[in-house]
């Protein structure tokens, strides 16, 4: 083994060991954050649609337009 390949081996070992250490620290930090925030709470399948209704409406209309449909949207409050 040459001096250069021995040095490269040590550098690779240090690099992989430090990545493992950083990964372990990230995992520990995530666990600590989860303990502070309490148990996981599912937001639900409609969370993002309800959070930004206009964007969800535009996305749905665009998807229907791409499928070849012309869409007129009338909000339920106005239709009644």
Textual characterization of the structure:
The protein is an all-alpha fold and 80 residues long. It has 4 helices and no strands. It is elongated. The protein starts with a helix and ends with a helix. The model has no long low-confidence stretch (mean pLDDT 77).
What attributes characterize this protein structure?
single chain, 80 residues, mainly alpha, 4 helices
Query: DSSP strand (E) fraction?
Result: under 5%
Report Rg: 26 Å
State the major sheet.
Answer: none
* Percentage of residues assigned to helices: over 70%
Number of strands: 0
What does this entry show, briefly?
With 80 residues, the chain is mainly alpha-helical. It has four helices and no strands. 0% of the residues are buried.
Give the helices and strands, then pairings.
Elements: H1 3-37, H2 47-51, H3 53-66, H4 76-79
